[in-house]
Amino acid sequence: MERSLHFIENIVEEDLDNGYKKPELRFRFPPEPNGFLHIGHVKAICLNFNLGRRYNAPVNLRFDDTNPEKEDNKFVEAIKENIRWLGYKWDLECYASDYFDQLYKWAVQLISEGHAYIDSQSSEEIASQKGTPTTPGINSPYRDRPIEESKSLFTKMKAGEFNEGEYVLRAKIDMSSPNMLMRDPIMYRILYETHHRTGDKWCIYPMYDWTHGQSDYIEQISHSLCTLEFKPHRDLYNWFLDSINPIHNLRPKQREFARMNLSFTVTSKRKLLELIKNNHVADWDDPRMPTIAGLRRRGYTPRALRNFVDSAGVTKRENVIDMSLLEYAIREDLNKIAPRVMGVLDPVKLTITNYPEGKKELLEGEINPETLELGKRIIPFSKHLYIEREDFKETANRKFFRLTINKEVRLKNAYIIKGESVIKDVDGNISEILCTYDPESKSGSETVASQRKVKGTLHWVTQNESLEVQVRLYDRLFTVPAPDSNKEVDFKKFINPDSLKVINAHVEPGLISANHGDHFQFQRLGYFVLDKDSSKTRLVFNRTVGLRDTWAKVNA
Predict the structure, then answer these.
(1) Tens digit of pLDDT for each residue in 402-458?
(2) Hey, what domains does the chain have and what are their CATH numbers?
(3) Which residues does the annotation mark as catalytic?
(4) What phi, psi does 307 have (nearest 5°)?
(5) How far is the CA of 177 from the CAs of 134, 236, 302, in angstroms?
(6) Is 435 within 8 Å of 403 (Cβ atoms)?
(7) How is residue 159 annotated by DSSP?
(8) What is the pLDDT of residues 360-381, one digit of tens each?
(9) Whole-prediction pTM
C-alpha cells in the first residue's frame, strides 16, 4: 500500500493544482562547505532528491560558499561523495560564489534606491543597537548617509581600501520590526581571506541571508525547503526579492520542515569540530561521529539511512528521534545482506581430547539464511579451537546454557561437545578448556546423534587456521540522550569513556579475501565492517551495531 503524502508533497500538489506547471518544478540541496554532512543533512538530501524523483524534476546541488574563513574544497568533494553514496544524482552543480558579481550589482542597486547604506560602526556597536524581541532597535547614526557617499564607500570596500571591520553594508528595513532579522541586517563585510574558488578576487563577501534567497531565485528554484529555524528568514528573503524588482515571474516558495534531531549525539558543526580538535575523535569520518562519512565507515548502508529517514517522516514539529531506531534500521538491512561468519573476540583455548591430532575437516555453514541462494561457506575444523571466554564457567546454575563441566553444548555447524576439565595459569585464570566430542553428532549428518537436542550453541574458530585481526568496538559517543541540551554545561562532559575499545580477535580464515567496506555478521556478536585501515597483513573490523539494543536496558 502506498504511503500517504507528507505535508511538503501536499504543498507541491496544491501548487500544481493552482497553476504551477511540472516543468517549472526545481528543487535544491544547499550545503555550506564548512564541514562534513551529518545525519541531519541526510533528511534534507532525501527530502529534496526524492521530490525530484517523484515529480521527475531537476535537483540542484548548490554550495552556499560565502565564508572563506571556514570553507575548503575538501568539504566540497566530501559532500559530493556523500550524496553519490546515498544514491542520488544532481542536475546542476552550482556555487553561490558563481553569483558574486550579480549580488554585487544588486547591492549597488539597493544603495542607489535608498534601500541600503554603509555603516561605520563596529560589530559590537551594531549588536548593541539591535534591541530585543520586546524592545525596538536604535537607528544607526549612519542610516541616512547620502546615497552617493555609500556608493563610493562600497566601491572602495570592494577595491580593498579599508581594513576588516571598518565598514559594512546594511539593508535599510525597519529597526522596530518584531522580526529581529529585519532590523537592518548586514549584507556585506570586509574579509581578507582567499576563497576556495574565487581566490583573492574579492575582499568583500556577502552574508548568508543576502546570498541564499537570491541564489534560489537566480536558479529558479520552485520550492526552497529549509529547516524550521529559517522560518523568520522568510520575510527577509521576500523583502530582498521585492527590493531588487525581479524580472522572472517564478519566485522560490520557502517552506520549513523539522530538522532531524537524534538522541545520544550532537550535530552542530562547531561542536563536531571541537570534538576533533580536542582529540575526542580522530576526524570527521571517525565511526563514532554522526557524519555521513562516519556512519559509512561504521558500516551503515545508504539503504538503511534512507529507510530510517523515511520512517522518521517529514513533519512541522521538532522532535527527537531515538538512536535505537537508527540502529534498528541498520540491523534490518544488514540482516538481509551480511554474510554470516564466526569470530571470537575474547578467545580462550579449547581442546577436544578425543579428536585425532592432525586431523582437519572442512565443514559447511550458511552464508546467509535470509538469502539461501548464496549457498554455503567452508569452515575448517580441528582438535584445537578458540571459543569466547564468557561462554564457559567451571560451575554454573541451570540457567547458564553455555559450556560448563559435565554439560553438553553444540559447536555451531560442527559437533556436540562436553566439558571435562580446565587448565589454569599461575594466577588461577583458565588458560585452556578440555572437552570431548561425540563423533556421531556432526551437524547436517543423518545420524541419530546429530538430531540430539542440546540447549546451547557456541561459535568458535580453529587455533591454527583462524586469522588474528584487530576489532574496534564502537559504542555511542555520549552517555546521555541530550548532551547539549543544557547550555550551561559543557557537552563534552557527557562523552562516553568506553565509546571505543580496540582488541585482538580471531575470525574464520575465509575473511582474508574481504574488501574494504564488506559487511559481516559475526554470529552471536553483531554486525561488523572491514575498515579502510586494513592491510594485506592486518585486517581491521569495526563493529557497526550489536544484534540487539543493549542500551534499552541501560536506560530503562
Answers:
(1) 999 999 999 999 999 999 999 999 999 999 999 999 999 999 887 877 788 899 999
(2) 7-259 (3.40.50.620), 269-339+469-554 (2.40.240.10), 343-459 (2.40.240.10)
(3) 32, 259, 269
(4) -65, -40
(5) 10, 11, 45
(6) yes
(7) T
(8) 999 999 999 988 788 999 999 9
(9) 0.93
